[in-house]
Design brief:
By secondary structure, the protein is α+β, with helices and mostly antiparallel strands. It is about 25% helix and about 40% strand. One of its GO terms (molecular function) is cyclic-di-GMP binding.
Length: about 140
């Protein structure tokens, strides 16, 4: 079973639908005393109105997390969450961490919209690049 299949197992238990994505995100991890215990980069694999699934190189152990991404205008979008679970991925050297959003509904919506817009914008540019890359004839 690969990481996408593993992620799908979780999708089946969720209350709200998941949107597949592949966004880069920065994180800051805090312990119960709100002390920073770790920070780094992750890849968002899917998200819903209630949370997000991250892929990282190490397990994320903490009680609170701040996720930071950029919207299409380059503006930082932040959302707070709680580490709901973390486990080893079937992908070598990777871990999957489920995050439950804990920010205000407005902040959650901003973050979700930013993730979706950036993902679809990047995907569209990639498709257009492939569509318009015409190979020049060899003379």
């Amino acid at each position: 079973m690969d990481s996408q299949q593993n992620a799908k197992t979780i999708v089946d238990r969720r209350k709200s639908p998941r949107i597949q994505t592949e966004n880069d995100v920065s994180y800051i991890l805090f312990d119960a005393n709100r002390e920073v215990t770790d920070q780094g980069r992750a890849k968002a694999l899917d998200l819903s109105q209630n949370g997000i699934l991250l892929e990282t190189e190490k397990p994320l152990n903490g009680s609170c997390i701040m996720l930071i991404t950029l919207d299409l205008n380059g503006k930082k979008v932040k959302v707070k969450g709680r580490v709901a679970n973390t486990r080893k991925s079937d992908k070598p050297g990777c871990h999957l961490t489920g995050i439950e959003f804990k920010s205000s509904e407005e902040q959650q919506i901003k973050a979700i919209v930013a993730f979706v817009k950036v993902y679809h914008n990047r995907r569209q540019r990639h498709q257009n690049k492939n569509l318009y890359s015409v190979q020049q004839p060899v003379s």
